[in-house]
Design brief:
Length: 165
C-alpha cells in the first residue's frame, strides 16, 4: 500500500509518501509545498493544488491521509487553512483517491503508542519506523509522514478493515 500523508497548511503543506508492505515501511518522499506570504491567496492555493496533483501523479498513492481540521484561536488562520485543505481534498478527489482523516491524538497513539506523546517523541518514532538518519525537516514533513504511518497502522488492523468495508 502506498499512502500520501498530508499536514495541511497554506504557507507550508507537509507531504510524505510511504509504502507499507508486510508490516514494513519504506519512505518514498517527504517534503513540503511552500507558498510565499506576499503571493495573492488564490495563487497560493492554486500552487498547493497543482503541487499536490503532481505528487499524486508521480507516486500513485492508493489513498490520502490528512489531519482533521481543528480550530485554534486565530479564526483567519483557521479559515485559510480550511481553504487550503479543501483544494488538497479536491486534488485527491479528482484523482480518484479515498481520503482518511485522523486527529493528532490518533496519530500519536498510532505512531508512539501514547495519545499524549510530545511532538519530539512522534518525530523520533517516525524517524525510527522509516529508518531515516535524521528527523525529517521541516516539521510539517515529519507530521505528514506520521499521518501516513497512522493510516498504514489503521488500515492494517482488523478494526481498520471493518471501518473501510
Amino acid at each position: 500500500m502506498i499512502v500520501l500523508g498530508i499536514d495541511p497548511g497554506y504557507a507550508i503543506v507537509g507531504t510524505g509518501v510511504v509504502e507499507y508492505v508486510n508490516n514494513k515501511f519504506k519512505p518514498l518522499h517527504y517534503g513540503a509545498i511552500l507558498t510565499e506570504a506576499k503571493t495573492p491567496f488564490n495563487e497560493r492555493i492554486e500552487k498547493i493544488y497543482d503541487d499536490a496533483c503532481a505528487l499524486i501523479e508521480k507516486y500513485k498513492p492508493e489513498c490520502v491521509a490528512m489531519e482533521k481540521l481543528f480550530f485554534n484561536t486565530n479564526q483567519k488562520t483557521a479559515i485559510d487553512v480550511a481553504q487550503a485543505r479543501g483544494v488538497l481534498i479536491l486534488a485527491a478527489q479528482k484523482n480518484g483517491l479515498p481520503i482518511y482523516e485522523y486527529t493528532p491524538l490518533q496519530v500519536k497513539q498510532s505512531v508512539v503508542g501514547y495519545g499524549r506523546a510530545e511532538k519530539k517523541q512522534v518525530q523520533e518514532m517516525t524517524r525510527l519506523l522509516l529508518n531515516l538518519e535524521k528527523i525529517p525537516k521541516p516539521d510539517d514533513a515529519a507530521d505528514a509522514l506520521a499521518m501516513a504511518i497512522c493510516h498504514c497502522h489503521s488500515a492494517g488492523s482488523a478494526l481498520g478493515k471493518i471501518m473501510k468495508g
